User: Fold this.
Amino acid sequence: MTMTIAEADKILSTCFAPWVLELRLVVESLGEDRAVLRLPWSERLAREGGGLSGQALMAAADTATVIAVSAARGGFVPMTTVQQSTSFQRAVTGSDVRIEAVLTKLGRRTAFADITLGDAESGALAARASTVYALLG
Assistant:
């Protein structure tokens, strides 16, 4: 039971802390087991040398997982991150980031996802993450 992008946008605007909203994430597509978001390039999120900060990328991966779980369940339910592991492979400079969260297992009480983060212009892989969520509702 996949949600619409408008429903996902509403989750983004109402269920996250104000600092997450400042990432200006955009939902690009949804599927029964995935969500694709875009993190727009911003100097505010860049570190020395011009690469996007790891903290911004990790928050984007975490947020994309919430949207993917919500899409798979047909709406938002309270959930919390139990574990997140991120491996950074290259810096993203001057380009948006495409984030794809794919659910690898969705149970009644837990969800597991693999997330890829790549340079939206070149397609080059920037980072991989895996998350585990506890579903509370």
About this structure: The chain is about 25% helix and 40% strand. The longest strand covers residues 125-135. Residues 54-73 form the longest helix (20 residues).
